[in-house]
């Protein structure tokens, strides 16, 4: 009870309230503009959050992250263009439903579905994170090293559409993580006598280049904005608000899928959405309506997406391991303020954790109310010229990069990764594994060194400790399963 009271005191600060409102609105706007992604918005906001207090900085980034999934449903439903990549299945039933003359029903149904998924996700975070932290308290270096190996494997296998590209970019990210001053042995690695490389490759310029400026290049190449409805009637804005509860089985199933997928590194919203939609159609009493304006299909898509939004925090808070690059950005905010995620976080910073839970709930409530009132104004953002948006992202990106350390080299790093990111987007090479590799690589290296130090260089320590052996076994099984399925598919295609 004391921690809850302290949590409310944390949230009651004006900085937290301002960060919550600004982050939520920014996330909604990012989702409502086709071509924008929450990763790009978070990358631009990251340098500014590093100078803020921990809770406001975290909430600002989470507002951009969570609000974008809500806002992404707007263009998906009205113009059949997903506002964010994960809203692609929302177009399947949301757009046909809007074409039937029920756009506000579709939008309010999407909002309420997102709200239900978001609240369920927060409740799961409240119960799962402390539970996993208690288990992690028993971990030693071998267990942490093994779980990081499992996380690395999961991130790579999650990009099964381009597994070679994922392996390549993850490997590059791990290599980049070795650059700079190595503290245990006091050696310099790959610095080539350049003092600006002593601290390694900074993550902020990297994520801004890969996710923000690379997307800006694409927007600058886009000539005309999509057509949006000029007069969106606000009548019936509450029609679909409670309709979500008519599909209780779909809500429960999609929530469980979203919660599970959110815990798996690299899987997240994409895997949850497709699996949830497929199962909803299979068990539906009216499967023939899916893809033609089925409310149940819209519910399955939106619930599963937002059920991931808080559970992705579980590995970060309890183990200190980011499940994706978005969580890696949050980890940067933690580390700047010397707050180390892990088992001790729930003991040493209980007020912060309670404040985080309360802020996440308030975030969902505010986004829901804001969209129900201001949707007709938010819709107009979809008609802004993509070139204007791209130019604004370029300016904000370079300002954010430079103002972090006031170094020209950071701007050059950002430009280099922007060019690399544009090439990767054009050729379908995933960029997420590179950032995860940059963050996980040094962490994994440190834990492995600690493991060999306590075992006098004996690698069998991973097999003699049950938890470490279990994590490594899961990693091997995952690789073996993927390899077998890949080989079987190739054989079937050849025959």
From TrEMBL:
InterPro entries: DUF112_TM (IPR002823)
Signal peptide: none
Keyword tags: Membrane, Transmembrane, Transmembrane helix
Transmembrane regions: 12-35, 55-79, 109-133, 139-158, 165-181, 201-220, 326-346, 352-374, 386-403, 415-441, 462-484
The DUF112 domain, residue ranges: 18-435
Origin superkingdom: Bacteria
One Pfam family in the UniProt entry: TctA
Protein name: Tricarboxylic transport membrane protein
């Amino acid at each position: 009870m004391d921690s809850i009271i302290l949590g409310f005191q944390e949230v009651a600060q004006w900085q937290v309230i301002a960060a919550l409102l600004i982050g939520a609105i920014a996330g909604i706007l990012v989702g409502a503009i086709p071509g924008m992604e929450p990763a790009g918005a978070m990358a631009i906001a990251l340098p500014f959050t590093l100078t803020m207090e921990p809770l406001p900085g975290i909430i600002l980034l989470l507002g951009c992250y969570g609000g974008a999934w809500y806002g992404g449903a707007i263009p998906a439903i009205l113009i059949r263009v997903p506002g964010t990549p994960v809203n692609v299945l929302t177009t399947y039933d949301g757009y046909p439903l809007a074409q039937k003359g029920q756009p506000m029903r579709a939008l309010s149904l999407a909002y309420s579905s997102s709200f239900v998924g978001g609240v369920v996700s927060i409740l799961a975070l409240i119960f799962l994170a402390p539970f996993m932290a208690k288990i992690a308290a028993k971990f030693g270096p071998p267990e942490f090293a093994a779980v990081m190996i499992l996380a690395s494997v999961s991130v790579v296998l999650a990009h099964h559409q381009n597994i070679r590209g994922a392996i390549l970019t993850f490997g590059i990210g791990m290599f980049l993580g070795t650059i700079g001053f190595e503290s245990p042995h006091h050696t310099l690695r790959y610095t080539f006598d350049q003092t600006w490389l002593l601290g390694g490759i900074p993550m902020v310029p990297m994520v801004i280049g890969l996710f923000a400026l690379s997307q800006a290049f694409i927007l600058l190449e886009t000539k005309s904005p999509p057509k949006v409805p000029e007069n969106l009637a606000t009548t019936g804005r509450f029609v679909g608000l409670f309709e979500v509860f008519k599909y209780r089985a779909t809500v429960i199933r999609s929530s469980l899928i979203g919660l599970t997928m959110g815990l798996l590194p690299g899987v997240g919203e994409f895997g949850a959405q497709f699996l949830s939609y497929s199962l909803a159609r299979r068990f539906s009493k009216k499967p023939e309506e899916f893809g033609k304006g089925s409310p149940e299909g819209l519910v399955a898509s939106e619930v599963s997406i937002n059920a991931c939004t808080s559970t992705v925090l579980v590995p970060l808070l309890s183990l200190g391991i980011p499940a994706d690059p978005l969580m890696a950005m949050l980890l940067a905010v933690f580390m700047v303020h010397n707050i180390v995620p892990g088992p001790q976080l729930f003991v040493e910073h209980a007020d912060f954790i309670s404040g985080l839970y309360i802020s996440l709930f308030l975030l969902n409530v505010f986004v829901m109310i804001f969209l129900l009132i201001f949707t007709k104004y938010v819709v107009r953002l979809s008609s802004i010229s993509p070139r204007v948006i791209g130019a604004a992202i370029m300016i904000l990106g370079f300002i954010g990069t430079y103002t972090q350390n006031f170094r020209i080299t950071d701007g050059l790093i950002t430009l280099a990764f922007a060019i690399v990111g544009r090439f990767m987007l054009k050729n379908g090479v995933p960029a997420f594994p590179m950032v995860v590799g940059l963050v996980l690589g040094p962490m994994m290296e440190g834990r492995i060194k600690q493991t060999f130090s306590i075992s006098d260089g004996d690698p069998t320590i991973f097999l003699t400790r049950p938890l470490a052996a279990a994590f490594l076994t899961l990693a091997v099984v995952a690789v073996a399963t993927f390899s077998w399925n890949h080989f079987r598919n190739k054989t079937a295609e050849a025959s």
